[in-house]
Amino acid sequence: NQPEIRLGSLHPTRDLTYVADTCEGFVKAAESDAAVGETIQLGTGRDVSVGYLVETVQKILGKNLPVVTKDERIRPEASEIDRLLSSPEKAKRLLGWEPLHTLEQGLEAHVDWMRQHLDRYRTDAYLV
Question: Is the pTM of this model over 0.90?
Fold first, then answer.
C-alpha cells in the first residue's frame, strides 16, 4: 500500500500569513494610535489554493504522493468559502507593516519545526 494524501476540495483559496509576521502586525497595531477603532487586515494580498499548498509542501518534503479527494472530507454545500483574500494596504499605510516571509518560506520553517516535534502529532487518525 502506497501512502496517499486524503483531502476534500482542492480549489478553495486562502491568504496565509506567517505567524511571526502576524505577531509583528499585532505589536505594531497595539503601539499605533492610528490603529484605534480601525479594522486592519494582516495578510499578504496573495491567495493560493489548497491544491497549490499540497504541491508546495510535497516539494519541500521531496515527496510525490498521490492526492485522493474523499467525499467525507468535502465540506457541505454552502458551508465552504471558496476564496479568502486580504487587503493589506491599510496595514502598510497605518502601521508601516508588511509581511517579511513568503508563503514558501513560512511552509519551509513550519516543516522544519514539525520534523523536530513529530512526537506531538497523531498521524494515524483524521480529526475534525
Answer: no
**Residue 126 in contact with residue 6, Cβ under 8 Å?**
yes
- For the chain, residues with pLDDT lower than 50 are none
State the Cα–Cα distance between residues 74 and 6, nearest whole angstrom.
10
Torsion of Cα atoms, 49 then 15 then 120 then 116, to 10°: 90
Helix (H, G, I), strand (E, B) or coil at 6: strand
The label of the residue with cell 485522493 reads: 68
Contact 111, 54 (CB under 8 A): no
Q: Residue 5 — φ and ψ, nearest 5°?
A: -105, 120
d(CA 98, CA 46): 12
